[in-house]
Amino acid sequence: MKVTFLGHASLQIESKGKFLIVDPFISANELAKDIDLAKLKADYILLTHAHQDHILDVEVIAKNTGAIIIANYEIVSYFEQKGLKGHPMNHGGSWDFDFGRLTFTNAIHSSSFPDGSYGGQPGGFIIESNDKAIYIAGDTALTMDMKLIPMQTKLDLAVLPIGDNFTMGITSACIAADFLACDNILAYHFDTFGFIKINHQEAINHFKDKGKKLHILPIGNSLTV
Ligand code: NI
Ligand code: MN
To answer: Which of 112, 78, 110, 76 is closest to 93 using CA atoms?
Structure first.
């Protein structure tokens, strides 16, 4: 699988020739101004929760591409009412898609839409494809639930929020990596706003001191697992 960082908590993942966009927040992110929304390929849009900084560009991408929205039941229902296609999931459930097997995991956060309406409970995703597995935590605190994941799935990459204030910070994310039994981490949810600006080198060194690799990708760059 090829993972491209699109800024904030937005990712593009290529798996089995299909393109997944995760939590698109691009058009209002000054740091992601070089990403051309109109040219993004998408067969699916995965949403961890309903906050503005995770769903802002869903409608434009879905309308451009015909992508299917995968999220909790409440978020999928919200977008289906706008005429978009969706596949609802809920916590603990898995489904075999043409890009691989997807599991909706627990997260500790909140999940209202920008207009205040209920966005269901927040979550994360595990994508399993070609004997590789990626965990995308979503916005979350450090939680003991993370220990359940390696009981069933050997992770090759964990995408973790490290920006603090709204989610885990660096110290908690490093403990999360232990809980997940995964030493290969991609950082997200940092630097976009004042509350979540971090020192990159400090973050990388903190993980390195604990024997882990923290990837901080420039926006638009990719890594492959
Ligand atoms: Ni959030
Ligand atoms: Mn967020």
So the answer is: 76
